[in-house]
Amino acid sequence: MAAAIAACLLAFAGVSVHAQGMAGPSDSMNAALRQLFGNTAFTGSAEFRVLDSSLRDTMILPMTYSMLDGRTRLDVEVSHTKSVQMPAAAALFMKQLGTLNVIIRPDKKATILVYPVLRAYTESPMDKEDEAYLLKNYKLAKTPLGRETMAGHACEKTKVILTDDSGKTQEMLVWYATDLKDFPIQIQMSDPNQTFLITFSKVKLGRPDAKLFEAPANMSRYDETQMAKKLTAMAGQQ
Protein backbone atom coordinates (compact mmCIF):
# COMPACT_ATOMS: atom_id res chain seq x y z
CA MET A 1 0.00 0.00 0.00
CA ALA A 2 2.73 2.44 0.88
CA ALA A 3 4.33 1.88 -2.50
CA ALA A 4 1.09 2.75 -4.26
CA ILE A 5 0.85 5.96 -2.25
CA ALA A 6 4.41 6.86 -3.18
CA ALA A 7 3.52 6.29 -6.82
CA CYS A 8 0.62 8.73 -6.53
CA LEU A 9 2.93 11.33 -5.04
CA LEU A 10 5.35 10.90 -7.91
CA ALA A 11 2.47 11.38 -10.32
CA PHE A 12 1.66 14.71 -8.65
CA ALA A 13 5.30 15.67 -9.24
CA GLY A 14 4.81 15.15 -12.97
CA VAL A 15 6.34 11.67 -13.17
CA SER A 16 4.85 8.81 -15.15
CA VAL A 17 3.92 6.18 -12.59
CA HIS A 18 3.91 3.30 -15.05
CA ALA A 19 7.27 4.36 -16.48
CA GLN A 20 8.78 4.29 -13.03
CA GLY A 21 7.54 0.77 -12.28
CA MET A 22 6.19 1.96 -8.93
CA ALA A 23 3.02 -0.12 -8.71
CA GLY A 24 2.36 -1.22 -5.16
CA PRO A 25 0.87 -4.37 -3.71
CA SER A 26 -2.54 -5.40 -4.97
CA ASP A 27 -5.67 -5.09 -2.86
CA SER A 28 -5.46 -8.84 -2.27
CA MET A 29 -1.98 -8.42 -0.78
CA ASN A 30 -3.18 -5.63 1.47
CA ALA A 31 -6.05 -7.81 2.62
CA ALA A 32 -3.56 -10.62 3.27
CA LEU A 33 -1.51 -8.34 5.52
CA ARG A 34 -4.57 -7.40 7.53
CA GLN A 35 -5.40 -11.08 7.93
CA LEU A 36 -1.85 -11.91 8.98
CA PHE A 37 -1.77 -9.32 11.77
CA GLY A 38 -5.31 -10.02 12.90
CA ASN A 39 -6.10 -8.11 16.10
CA THR A 40 -2.46 -7.60 17.13
CA ALA A 41 -1.96 -4.13 18.63
CA PHE A 42 1.54 -2.71 18.13
CA THR A 43 3.76 0.10 16.92
CA GLY A 44 7.05 -0.41 15.13
CA SER A 45 9.45 0.96 12.57
CA ALA A 46 9.19 -0.72 9.18
CA GLU A 47 11.16 -0.73 5.96
CA PHE A 48 9.11 -1.44 2.84
CA ARG A 49 11.18 -2.67 -0.11
CA VAL A 50 10.24 -3.40 -3.70
CA LEU A 51 12.56 -5.76 -5.58
CA ASP A 52 12.63 -6.58 -9.27
CA SER A 53 12.64 -10.06 -10.82
CA SER A 54 16.41 -10.29 -10.11
CA LEU A 55 15.76 -9.42 -6.44
CA ARG A 56 17.48 -6.06 -6.77
CA ASP A 57 16.01 -3.14 -4.80
CA THR A 58 14.00 -0.74 -6.93
CA MET A 59 12.50 1.21 -4.02
CA ILE A 60 13.02 1.48 -0.27
CA LEU A 61 10.45 3.32 1.84
CA PRO A 62 10.76 3.76 5.64
CA MET A 63 7.73 4.22 7.85
CA THR A 64 6.25 3.79 11.30
CA TYR A 65 3.53 1.12 11.32
CA SER A 66 0.80 1.00 13.97
CA MET A 67 -2.26 -1.21 14.41
CA LEU A 68 -5.17 -1.11 16.86
CA ASP A 69 -8.41 -3.12 16.69
CA GLY A 70 -8.05 -3.70 12.94
CA ARG A 71 -7.22 -0.06 12.24
CA THR A 72 -3.88 0.74 10.61
CA ARG A 73 -1.70 3.85 10.60
CA LEU A 74 1.36 4.30 8.41
CA ASP A 75 3.61 7.31 9.02
CA VAL A 76 5.44 7.21 5.71
CA GLU A 77 8.75 9.08 5.52
CA VAL A 78 8.42 9.94 1.84
CA SER A 79 11.37 12.35 2.04
CA HIS A 80 13.63 9.35 2.72
CA THR A 81 12.37 7.27 -0.18
CA LYS A 82 15.10 5.67 -2.28
CA SER A 83 14.37 4.63 -5.84
CA VAL A 84 16.68 3.63 -8.66
CA GLN A 85 14.40 5.36 -11.18
CA MET A 86 13.35 8.50 -9.33
CA PRO A 87 13.97 11.72 -11.32
CA ALA A 88 15.46 14.70 -9.49
CA ALA A 89 12.17 16.65 -9.66
CA ALA A 90 10.28 13.84 -7.94
CA ALA A 91 12.96 13.48 -5.26
CA LEU A 92 12.79 17.22 -4.51
CA PHE A 93 9.00 17.13 -4.32
CA MET A 94 9.03 14.22 -1.89
CA LYS A 95 11.69 15.95 0.22
CA GLN A 96 9.41 19.00 0.46
CA LEU A 97 6.45 16.82 1.39
CA GLY A 98 8.35 15.19 4.25
CA THR A 99 5.89 12.78 5.85
CA LEU A 100 2.55 11.34 4.82
CA ASN A 101 0.23 9.78 7.40
CA VAL A 102 -2.07 7.06 6.09
CA ILE A 103 -4.92 5.93 8.35
CA ILE A 104 -6.96 2.92 7.23
CA ARG A 105 -10.32 2.48 8.95
CA PRO A 106 -12.06 -0.77 7.91
CA ASP A 107 -14.74 -0.04 10.53
CA LYS A 108 -15.65 3.16 8.67
CA LYS A 109 -14.70 1.78 5.24
CA ALA A 110 -12.59 4.91 4.86
CA THR A 111 -9.00 5.98 4.29
CA ILE A 112 -7.55 9.19 5.76
CA LEU A 113 -4.47 10.77 4.19
CA VAL A 114 -2.77 13.44 6.32
CA TYR A 115 -0.23 15.91 4.88
CA PRO A 116 1.47 17.52 7.93
CA VAL A 117 3.49 20.01 5.87
CA LEU A 118 0.22 21.37 4.41
CA ARG A 119 -1.71 21.01 7.68
CA ALA A 120 -4.39 19.29 5.62
CA TYR A 121 -6.02 15.91 5.15
CA THR A 122 -8.52 14.00 3.05
CA GLU A 123 -10.99 11.35 4.16
CA SER A 124 -12.35 9.15 1.41
CA PRO A 125 -14.49 6.01 1.22
CA MET A 126 -12.67 2.84 0.25
CA ASP A 127 -13.20 1.80 -3.35
CA LYS A 128 -15.53 -1.12 -3.97
CA GLU A 129 -12.73 -3.56 -4.73
CA ASP A 130 -10.86 -2.94 -1.49
CA GLU A 131 -14.13 -3.02 0.45
CA ALA A 132 -14.93 -6.40 -1.10
CA TYR A 133 -11.61 -7.80 0.10
CA LEU A 134 -12.44 -6.67 3.63
CA LEU A 135 -15.55 -8.82 3.59
CA LYS A 136 -13.80 -12.00 2.49
CA ASN A 137 -13.14 -14.88 4.83
CA TYR A 138 -9.68 -16.44 4.82
CA LYS A 139 -8.27 -19.78 5.83
CA LEU A 140 -4.64 -19.72 6.95
CA ALA A 141 -2.25 -22.65 6.45
CA LYS A 142 1.31 -22.65 7.81
CA THR A 143 4.29 -24.80 6.85
CA PRO A 144 7.41 -24.47 9.08
CA LEU A 145 10.64 -24.03 7.09
CA GLY A 146 13.16 -23.94 9.95
CA ARG A 147 14.72 -21.46 12.33
CA GLU A 148 16.53 -18.31 11.21
CA THR A 149 17.74 -15.10 12.81
CA MET A 150 16.07 -12.10 11.24
CA ALA A 151 16.48 -8.44 12.25
CA GLY A 152 18.25 -9.58 15.42
CA HIS A 153 15.45 -11.95 16.48
CA ALA A 154 15.29 -15.72 16.64
CA CYS A 155 12.53 -16.61 14.20
CA GLU A 156 10.48 -19.46 12.84
CA LYS A 157 10.59 -19.08 9.06
CA THR A 158 7.18 -20.15 7.76
CA LYS A 159 5.39 -20.50 4.44
CA VAL A 160 1.92 -19.06 4.87
CA ILE A 161 -0.91 -19.64 2.41
CA LEU A 162 -4.11 -17.64 2.74
CA THR A 163 -7.16 -18.94 0.89
CA ASP A 164 -10.22 -16.73 0.50
CA ASP A 165 -13.80 -17.93 0.27
CA SER A 166 -13.62 -18.04 -3.54
CA GLY A 167 -10.60 -20.37 -3.45
CA LYS A 168 -8.04 -17.74 -4.47
CA THR A 169 -4.72 -18.11 -2.65
CA GLN A 170 -1.98 -15.71 -1.54
CA GLU A 171 1.38 -17.22 -0.59
CA MET A 172 4.00 -15.47 1.52
CA LEU A 173 7.07 -16.14 3.62
CA VAL A 174 6.84 -14.96 7.21
CA TRP A 175 9.53 -14.82 9.88
CA TYR A 176 7.82 -15.08 13.28
CA ALA A 177 9.96 -13.65 16.12
CA THR A 178 9.75 -16.10 19.03
CA ASP A 179 10.85 -13.46 21.56
CA LEU A 180 8.02 -11.12 20.47
CA LYS A 181 5.12 -13.51 20.93
CA ASP A 182 5.54 -14.74 17.35
CA PHE A 183 5.22 -11.28 15.84
CA PRO A 184 5.81 -11.38 12.03
CA ILE A 185 9.10 -9.48 12.03
CA GLN A 186 9.52 -9.90 8.25
CA ILE A 187 6.98 -10.60 5.51
CA GLN A 188 7.76 -11.40 1.89
CA MET A 189 5.18 -11.48 -0.91
CA SER A 190 5.58 -11.68 -4.66
CA ASP A 191 3.71 -11.15 -7.87
CA PRO A 192 5.01 -12.15 -11.35
CA ASN A 193 7.19 -9.05 -11.71
CA GLN A 194 8.05 -7.83 -8.21
CA THR A 195 8.77 -8.93 -4.68
CA PHE A 196 7.52 -6.92 -1.70
CA LEU A 197 9.43 -7.16 1.57
CA ILE A 198 8.45 -5.59 4.89
CA THR A 199 10.95 -5.75 7.76
CA PHE A 200 10.10 -4.45 11.23
CA SER A 201 12.28 -3.12 14.02
CA LYS A 202 11.74 -1.42 17.40
CA VAL A 203 8.45 -3.26 17.79
CA LYS A 204 6.38 -2.36 20.85
CA LEU A 205 3.53 -4.75 21.54
CA GLY A 206 0.55 -3.09 23.17
CA ARG A 207 -2.21 -0.65 22.37
CA PRO A 208 -1.12 2.63 20.73
CA ASP A 209 -3.06 5.83 21.44
CA ALA A 210 -6.49 5.59 19.77
CA LYS A 211 -6.21 9.26 18.72
CA LEU A 212 -3.56 8.24 16.18
CA PHE A 213 -6.30 6.60 14.12
CA GLU A 214 -8.56 9.64 13.93
CA ALA A 215 -8.56 12.58 11.52
CA PRO A 216 -6.50 15.45 13.01
CA ALA A 217 -8.71 18.04 14.66
CA ASN A 218 -6.19 20.86 14.13
CA MET A 219 -5.93 20.50 10.33
CA SER A 220 -8.19 21.44 7.42
CA ARG A 221 -10.13 18.82 5.50
CA TYR A 222 -10.10 18.86 1.69
CA ASP A 223 -11.69 16.61 -0.89
CA GLU A 224 -9.48 14.64 -3.25
CA THR A 225 -9.76 17.16 -6.10
CA GLN A 226 -8.82 20.08 -3.85
CA MET A 227 -5.86 18.16 -2.41
CA ALA A 228 -4.65 17.19 -5.88
CA LYS A 229 -4.60 20.88 -6.81
CA LYS A 230 -2.65 21.76 -3.65
CA LEU A 231 -0.08 19.04 -4.32
CA THR A 232 0.23 20.00 -7.98
CA ALA A 233 0.80 23.63 -6.97
CA MET A 234 3.39 22.52 -4.44
CA ALA A 235 5.22 20.49 -7.09
CA GLY A 236 5.12 23.45 -9.47
CA GLN A 237 6.91 25.68 -6.96
CA GLN A 238 10.12 23.64 -7.22
Q: What features would you describe in this structure?
A:
- The chain has 6 helices and 13 strands.
- The protein has 238 residues and is an alpha+beta fold.
- The chain has a single domain (2-232), classed as Clam (outer membrane lipoprotein receptor (LolB), chain A).
- Strands 1, 2, 3, 4, 5, 6, 7, 8, 9, 10, 11, 12 and 13 form a 13-stranded mixed sheet that branches.
- The model is unreliable at 1-26 (pLDDT under 50).
List the helices and strands and how they pair.
Blueprint (H helix, E strand, L loop, with lengths): L1 H11 L4 H4 L6 H11 L4 E10 L5 E12 L2 E6 L5 E2 L4 H10 L2 E6 L4 E6 L4 E6 L2 H7 L3 E13 L2 E12 L4 E9 L5 E8 L4 E11 L14 E2 L2 H13 L2
Parallel strand pairs: 7-13
Antiparallel strand pairs: 1-2, 1-12, 2-3, 2-4, 3-5, 5-6, 6-7, 8-9, 9-10, 10-11, 11-12
Please tell me how large the radius of gyration is.
Answer: 18 Å
Per DSSP E runs of 2 or more residues, the count of β-strands stands at 13
Approximate strand percentage: 35-45%
- Main beta-sheet annotation: 13 strands, mixed
Uncertain segments are 1-26
Structural class based on helices, strands and sheet pairing? alpha+beta
Q: Name the average pLDDT.
A: 82
Quote the distance from N terminus to C terminus.
27 Å
- Under the CATH scheme, which architecture would be assigned? Clam
Identify the CATH class. Answer: Mainly Beta
What is the percent of helical residues? 10-25%
Order of helices and strands: HHHEEEEHEEEHEEEEEEH
